[in-house]
Amino acid sequence: MILDKLSNISRYEPLFPQIRHAMDWLATHDITKMEPGTYQIDGPRLMVKVQHYHTVPQAERALEYHRRYIDLQCQLHGQEIFGMCNPSDLTAPGEYLPDRDVCFPTGKCSDFFPLREGYFFIAFPEEIHQTKCLMENQSSEVYKAIFKLLPAA
Q1: Which of 42, 57, 64, 152 is the most buried (most CB within 10 A)?
Q2: Pairing between strand 2-5 and 119-123?
Q3: Strand 37-42 relative to strand 128-133: parallel, antiparallel, unpaired?
Q4: Cα–Cα–Cα angle for 138, 139, 143, rounded to 5 degrees
Q5: CA–CA dist 5, 23 (Å, integer)
Q6: pLDDT in tens, the chain (153 residues)
Q7: CB atoms closer than 10 angstroms to residue 29
Q8: C-alpha to C-alpha distance for 127 and 3, rounded to whole angstroms
Q9: Cα–Cα distance between 33 and 74 in angstroms, integer?
């Protein structure tokens, strides 16, 4: 996992070539005026999920991980906390859904981090995370762009 400010994202371009393309797309699209959903940017190599939601208590949020894609989650408005889990935090592995590249295991995250406006985090394949959680017990309206980066083979 990587957590940093969006103003520092160019530091990670050598690791992930799609980041430049993702940030160029973000600079030309106002996601607050877009319908939530998935948009193709560069075929299967790069897509974005535009999200608009209100944060909820941790108990209402599922854990998830992906096998194929790297998540680049950019917090553009609002704040939340997100959990990162170790495999030892799981009580059941969940069923992998290959058409959505997602698995929803059960368990409880042991580590939580703030995700404030203007920050991003990267979750690598198999890294279990829990997002959209309340920060300081207050609901926040969130606009988020989740870029799905397909690692080079």
Answers
A1: 64
A2: antiparallel
A3: unpaired
A4: 135
A5: 13
A6: 999 999 999 999 999 989 999 999 999 999 999 999 999 999 999 999 999 999 999 999 999 999 999 999 999 999 999 999 998 999 999 999 999 999 999 999 999 999 999 999 999 999 999 999 999 999 999 999 999 999 986
A7: 15
A8: 13
A9: 16
